Amino acid sequence: MIAELLTNALQRSHERTLTVMELLNIAGQLQAAGEPSAVAMLYQAWIEHNGDNPVLYAVHFNHAVVLSNAGNLDGAKHALTEAIRLNPDFYPAYINFGHVLERQGLNGDGVSQWYTVSNRLGVINGENVGYKQAALKQIGRLLEKSNFDAHAEDALRISLEINPNQSDVIQHWVSLRQRQCEWPVIKPWANVTRKQLLDGISTLSLDAYTDDPLFQLANAYVYARDDVGQPKASFHAGHAGVIARADPVRRKIGYVSSDLREHAVGFLTTEIYGLHDRSKVEVFVYYCGIASKDAIHLKIKESCDHWVDITGMGDEAAAEKIAADGIEILIDLNGYTNGARSKVFAMRPAPINVNWLGYPGTLGSPYHHYIIADDFIIPPESELYYSEKVVRIPCYQPNDRGREVAPQPPRRQDHGLPEDGVIFCCFNGVHKITTFTWSRWMAILNQVPGSVLWLLEGIDTTNARLKELAKAAGVDPARIIFAGKRANPVHLARYPLADLFLDTTPYGAHTTCSDALWMGVPVLTLAGRGFASRVCGSLITSAGIGELVCTTPEEYVARAVELGLNKAKRDALRARLVAGRDTCVLFDTPLLVASLEKVYAQMWDEYVQGKMPRPDLANLDAYNDIGIELDQDNVELLAVPDYLDRYRDALAKKDEFGYLRADSRLWAGGSDTVKV
Question: How confident is the model at residue 121 (pLDDT cuts 50, 70, 90)?
Answer without folding.
Answer: low
